[in-house]
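I'll show one example:
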Amino acid sequence: MDRQGDRRRHEDAWWRELYEDDGDAAARDTGPAGAARDSLDDRVDSAFRAVGQATDAESVPPTEAGTDTRAPAGPGPRPEPMALPAADPAALDDLVPDTELDGAGYGTFTLRAASLRGEAARHRGEPRGDALLTARFGAGQHALVLVAVATTAPGGDSYAYGGTHRAARDACRWIGGAVGRSYTRLAEDVRTGNRDALKSGLHRLADRTYGKLRAYAVEHGMEPEQYTAALRCLLLPADPACRTRVFFGAGAGGFFRLGNGVWQDLEPPPQEDATGGPAPAGGASGPEETPVDTLPWPVPGAPGPDALIPDVPDAPDQGALLPDLGGAVPGLPRAPSGQPWQPPYEPAPRTAPEPFRFRAVAARPGDLLLVCSAGFTGPLTEAAGFGSRLAARWTAAGPPGLAAFLADVRLHAEGYGQDRTAVAVWEGAEAGEAVRPR
């Protein structure tokens, strides 16, 4: 009993020494100053305050002299995926990844491309509506690189049919196939500066792509506007002696050039006729875009028959894709009078397609060309500090690596939660030498 009593008194003395004698200073360090008691709640609150102070200290931006603009940009709040889109076991090919990332270097340019699901779609568990295609056709100096960006409006009518992301992917796939089948002539026209042939030929390819989208919509009982996508494309020849970059497409998005730290909007005006519809494929009517290139190309006009790209049939008329149920269509019943059967409803008015856009640019050493979807154009042109921060980072020391480029594209901007797709092309300083990534 005496030994147990001595041991207990020794332990009590040790605890008093810890919490009473030397514990005052510790209590002042971890608990509220001047507190009359030291409960478990007090210590938990003190720990939270200590962690919060450390986090604030770590988040203080460095001084101006110590700022490294090449460091990866910090993502915004909740940047990681939250919910997977619903999957159909019979259509697993329709699943798209949350993020796509690609890059390459040919001739004088270095390419970076990224497409990621927006914060809003991640929260709702919807698939990424943006689509990205990077493809090389041919080899060596005769190769042609195509970058296509397609986007649809999240939460629009297409979601009722579950086809919004499929429309964007189909647009990229169909325009890619059309360009790939004609890449030899396209690459030659880019190298020789045959602007009229490029404009008319690419217009036909775009019309053909949108015609397929309309046909798919009709086949599946949808209106044309319920299965469509904005399309932005860029043609990049691999020949180091050619610095011509060709942009074309239709719909919302952006086309910019970054030079000397300043963003320049290169968005061409739409090619429309007097009635507001799309101009003929020859490009003879409609306002001409303000030239931003320096190549000695001929004055735009209606090209001759030999200027059209061969092996590409003309896009069928829109009327051929939308059946006229009021006519004598085989298989439809006829009225007792023998007149053609009339549908019991008025046909829905056709919406005018998006006007075609085209621009050819002579890239300069040190330039950066950017093609992006509407979800990236918004913060770039409207969010305070977004464009200037990217300009500082992308002109610091050459193109970033793939991971750093993805971090730049996902840079948070309050109020902009749409899908983002961005394709950046850095131009080398000398012919035959691509920009060296950092």
